[in-house]
Amino acid sequence: MKRIDAYIFWQLLTVTVFVTATLTCVVWLTQSLRFVEMIVNRGLSAPLFVYFTLLLLPTFLTIIMPIALFAGTLFIYNRLLTDSELVVMRAGGCSQFKLARPALILTGLTTIACYMLSTYFMPAAYREFKELQNTLRNSYPTVLLQEGVFNNVVSGVTVYVRRRAADGELFGIIVHDSRDAARPVTMMAERGRIVSGTNGPRVVMAIGNRQQVDAGDGRLSLLYFDRYSFDIGTLSNVDGPRWLEPRERFLHELFNPEPRDAWKANKLYMEGHHRLAQPLLPVAFALVALALLLSGEFNRRGQTWRILSAIGVVIVVQSAQIGIKNLGEKLPELAVVMYLIPLIPAVIAILIMAGWQPFARVRYTNAPATD
């Protein structure tokens, strides 16, 4: 029996990992296209770009892994049915639950992995993603400067750079500050760099000049310098600490929000329950696939209707889970429904595997006619 379990388990694991890897690559590529502009036009390094986009993977995996498990279970058990291997195993004394045991073991491992992702790795990675995104936008404008283009790094401040070295040094710098419309300032320098200051980014320039025109009389003030420092100012439009999105928060932060987050309490509350209910989907998906493929009589013409039925149930369950989460932000009392959505199909699937036939046909016998 252990050989049969291992035989089915490794086939399931191989297909599930393959589907997970394939879907993850597809989703990662489509999502990373949103940030390609950073590497093509803004000069973001390739390793930093890869790290930046890989931080989104835990968010994708919580959705992909249940679907991959369902696809693997459906594919392997359908193939075992088509090749009559399950018929032979049943003839050898294997019950429904013994045949399902390898899939249930993999389901348990997937559920544990999903709980680890949803409770720790997803919020930790997404918080790091948002912090890095905020840092790139607000603290290191050098990374976002495009060579040979007038870059509006902040409202009223335009920076032109002829060339940027690998170490961050800038050559051929022009800075135009029009935040004071009455006295705009233009600075030009042979070289320099942008560094972080106490009040935000600061341009440190060497060997150049500073030009200022008085709007009142049109006089030009010209100042030559060997070294000049210019504060760009903060690039962030938000004062104070950054507000953490629900996906960035851990469970204790979702269920015990601070008073300043009271205006989003329902959204945080439903996000917390969603994190706990989402990992139950692998159980529901796998059991639905097993119940529909292992129950009933063997049909040599295929199991098309059972496969389509399983896919339909999974689509309904997944859609209901998302819908209740969004609706629960207005009616938090619906939080318990998020747990019932995956549990009810799982319980029904177990009953079907145990012999319950809710859709069994009623057979009629022709009774002899009586005078």
Account of the protein in words:
The protein has 371 residues and is an alpha+beta fold. Helix content is 53%, strand content 16%. It contains eleven helices and six strands. Strands 1-2-3-4-5-6 form a six-stranded antiparallel β-sheet, with no helix packed on it. A hairpin with a 6-residue loop joins β5 (200-213) and β6. It starts with a helix and ends in an 18-residue tail after the last helix. The model is unreliable at 235-239 and 362-371 (pLDDT under 50).
Outline:
The chain has 371 residues and is an alpha+beta fold. The protein is built from eleven helices and six strands.
What structural category characterises the helix and strand content? alpha+beta
Mean pLDDT: 83
Shape: elongated
Order of helices and strands: HHHHHHEEEEEEHHHHH
How far is the N terminus from the C terminus? 59 Å
Low-confidence stretches: 235-239, 362-371
User: Count of DSSP helices?
Assistant: 11
Strand content: 15-25%
The radius of gyration is 31 Å
The side-by-side strand order for the widest beta sheet comes to 1-2-3-4-5-6
Helix content: 40-55%
Oligomeric state of shown chains: single chain
